[in-house]
């Protein structure tokens, strides 16, 4: 933020330094400033600011011009695509502020009356304006020429430059025309200037020295210094006369098997000047010749026309086509307004089999489809790589060259702090078969991938390393080189095993450099795009010879790069768009359907569910169980229901392997009672124990006061029991889950399911992020209050912006209060507070050595809770972080009201933050860290930390460990502590995944009576390889290292070894874990009481 403000201040100083003899006349400056307005737009879950200017005045009503992207939802700008119907602006509130930053400031509500997404223009209407300013002349606009001096008026950086409570003051800049960009028809499309346009300038006027409009400021080149663009004034003139907008085609098969196409054309007509229009169209057979750029469709051989009927803001016509393949080319032309002709648009006539109706459009646009979602258009084929991870469309009858490589990389300990493992030289692609030369430059060739920046290759070890210290970079590529045309390239990079969260921005920058290749190349356009639900980036790269249009996607540990390589016209053609838009990931198999009305304890989403209904006029009176053993522990391996109808018993089917008679145990209600509840002790993989609840039933009614429990079936140990049902309702079904080992979950089905069983306590994500070794501070809001914002002081780390101090902002009723300041305030602070009715719901934190940045998510407060669906984000506070940093870590966000702030700080700066909730006070979750002295953590790198203590008075006596596999090597995937207090043994929470697809076996390592955990010996690499525990004798509340023994080794022996603990009694377990594995271990020691 400071950098942006400094840049804006520099622009102001530049304006003040303009020589008097080259300046725009003072009266012209005053007139244009009065006509320029500050524009605010607010929609559902988004808001934005920009500039606009008056183009017409009629008494107290004025019309303003601005950019379409200023008043539209950000999602409307994500795709580079032909304009469909204008995104609805009915849910957008637009405000125009005149004379911003002065005592004469006037704020008025504005109505959107016309939108032109193709040219990024919109027209607003403001009524009831007293003393409206004079309009800026756009009708007699001068023809722009290179080196022409122009002046920009607008509100860069929006509210950030406001010095008071009102709007910011206007900023005036000087620039010159550096280039005139033409479209395919030879018409002026964009005016390029050598002065930079900043966010907030969009929609403002760019005028000559006489105050005549030259263009509408629209954009700048990302990463380009001093380059901006404007929409030519002539485009605004054509819009005001009326023009035809986006086209929407819907096709269906008629009774005679002909194709019936309904055409709908948007009208861009702010002054209601259009009176009629005609749709010209032509069907082009596969491989047929399309109209040339600039050629009207009506002049193409075989063209037909249909009269469009006006209905509100839409013109419609219905076309009957004999052909059902190829492409249809359309153009709408208004009567008597030749300058208002719509763009020539091409749609494939692909209609899926069995479809009653389908929207025709380029793949990826609303109603369109990608590979795997519909058949490929004529002239194209669907391609799936050997690993079957994605699909894409390539031109038909062109050979696809494939290559797959897996490169092993040795990872030394400790693992380097990089977004992903250091990458070697990418294997060079074989040359594409040379097509005939394109005019003006040699045929495109797939460039060799250069080594990525900032990631030096790791030295190769002298001998074959342990597999556990390896990752593999798997590169799959497919190249389709069209003779006399462009080359289409898809590359996929998969890192195995995953190395945790990656820095998506860094990966996108790396992929962009790969797309640029070697030699002189420049990115002239960068936009946000999507591949199905996944967001990515698109780059237009212009080279000395030719161009590249590329898209990059970062999806977990997989990276995708799609490229169209050829001439500038070829890479921007409809065919290139079709290729880039068609790529889709393979969809995963749908999850198994849920059992209606069922509540089950245990099992995983992948297990098979069962539901045995209670017979008509019958009741569930018991369960027969099959028993087994895992180690020394009894388990329940199978179960079947016992029903009763009219005094006669019957059984349901066995779920799990049918047991031998000696392994059966039957629990049935005594006469007059029915089964109404189960208390189930289950892991994700098996049921360890069950207790049944029976309730008296008289004439169909239950008496909750007359009930009893059965003896426990199976083991009494294991996880805490989960109650299913109770005493007040009779079940209508016996339900559960079965997995590879047999019975994995058990429950009951009811007519009306009440509150679900209490879920196991799980973290909301990391409790805090950053400042792992710094002291922690806890602060809670005043009674009845909650967190609504932060006051953040900025600091510097070398040349990087970082967060130096933080203090909470609380709201109690109508009163706002500030909390304690954590860290040192070195300069002005930025206060970011929720708008009325909202509160802090989550923080996105980027931290490494210190706290780099904060982004606050505000959520709507509804009945004392937060609604995550109604939320918005603040701007980033702080800097982007250094190279190789991880993605921001999200703290909170589940909709629980936040009532306090956790902060970690050193002697100078705040280094980490977390949140406190009113409903959680369990060790290791969102409550304050358990009191204790932590050891260092062996392993884990930058993964989220956990910390857990047992019940008061207990000590750590062991661990329960889930062991998985990495290739053929055993590794530790999850762990939970085992505590002992007196004669009672309890287990803590699982840290790491417990799913049976990840964990192959569980091992419980516990001290013999009178001993406790003294030291952990741990080996770690990418995750946790293995460990052993040194147990020591407990004597008078202390450990005796002389009386000790070591457990057997659990897991593998790869990675580097370290020890945690020094023989001091441990009251808790600390460590680090991520979604796919536990990765680090440490111990928590008690704090000695003060004397």
Automatic annotation (TrEMBL):
Gene3D superfamilies assigned to the protein according to its UniProt record, in alphabetical order: Trypsin-like serine proteases
Leader peptide range in chain numbering: 1-20
GO biological process: proteolysis
Comp. bias (Low complexity): 596-605
Source organism superkingdom: Bacteria
Biased composition (Basic and acidic residues): 698-708
Region (Disordered): 586-612, 697-722, 755-777, 869-890
UniProt entry keywords in alphabetical sequence: Hydrolase, Protease, Signal
GO MF annotations, alphabetized: serine-type endopeptidase activity
UniProt keyword Protease present: yes
Name of this chain's protein: Serine protease
